[in-house]
């Protein structure tokens, strides 16, 4: 007879439920390592877009073969930046729906394929404006597939009284 409860083989008694963590001091070494890895991931996660904003004008000027002071350089840099924001905005809803259907962990980890593709497109010789915008579109989709999905994943695993501080650390 299956009652849906976990049973201990040794005693044929229901297995004890895992203890709920109510204090940071109760975290295991593995939980600290996992948290540190997630935090470092987030630390370096936003670095790529911030680097783009630092190099956008000289990079786009080089692709367009125009001086950085040309208005076309600023306009085109904005279009490329907008591709990232469109990917993030549209990807958020899409990946949320997919995560509800196939699982948060799968979507979160699968989104790293988009990051790989975004970086791979920039390794191509002479990427051009279209490919650069496409790369940042993929980067925006990657952010959408990780940011919101990670928060949903964390909210289901963090104790209620530590949920806000735990999610803030991940953010």
The gist of it:
This protein is mainly alpha-helical and 171 residues long. The chain contains 6 helices and 2 strands.
What are the main properties of this structure?
single chain, 171 residues, mainly alpha, two-stranded antiparallel ribbon, 2 strands, elongated, disordered N terminus
Rg: 22 Å
Neighbour order of strands in the largest sheet: 1-2
- The run of helices and strands is EEHHHHHH
Q: How many strands in all?
A: 2
Shape: elongated
Total of helices: 6
Provide the helix percentage. Answer: over 70%
Broad structural category: mainly alpha
- Low-confidence residue ranges: 1-8
Strand content: under 5%
N→C terminal distance: 44 Å
Can you tell me about this structure?
With 171 residues, the chain is mainly α. The chain has helices spanning 29-45, 47-64, 71-102, 104-122, 128-157, 163-170, and strands spanning 7-8, 13-14. It has 6 helices and 2 strands, in the order ββαααααα. Helix 2 (47-64) crosses helix 3 (71-102), helix 2 (47-64) runs antiparallel to helix 5 and helix 3 (71-102) packs antiparallel against helix 4 (104-122). The termini are far apart.
Q: How does the SSE layout of this entry go?
A:
Layout: E1 7-8, E2 13-14, H1 29-45, H2 47-64, H3 71-102, H4 104-122, H5 128-157, H6 163-170
């Amino acid at each position: 007879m299956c009652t849906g409860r976990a049973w201990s083989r040794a005693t044929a008694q229901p297995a004890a439920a895992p203890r709920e963590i109510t204090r940071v001091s109760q975290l295991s070494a593995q939980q600290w390592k996992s948290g540190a890895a997630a935090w470092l991931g987030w630390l370096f996660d936003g670095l790529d877009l911030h680097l783009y904003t630092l190099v956008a004008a000289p990079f786009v000027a080089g692709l367009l073969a125009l001086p950085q002071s040309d208005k076309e350089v600023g306009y085109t840099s904005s279009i490329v930046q907008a591709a990232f924001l469109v990917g993030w905005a549209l990807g958020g809803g899409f990946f949320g729906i997919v995560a509800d259907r196939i699982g948060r962990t799968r979507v979160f980890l699968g989104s790293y394929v988009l990051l790989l593709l975004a970086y791979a497109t920039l390794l191509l010789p002479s990427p051009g404006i279209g490919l650069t915008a496409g790369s940042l579109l993929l980067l925006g989709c990657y952010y959408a597939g990780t940011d919101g999905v990670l928060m949903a994943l964390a909210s289901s695993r963090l104790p209620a009284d530590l949920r806000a501080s735990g999610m803030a650390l991940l953010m």
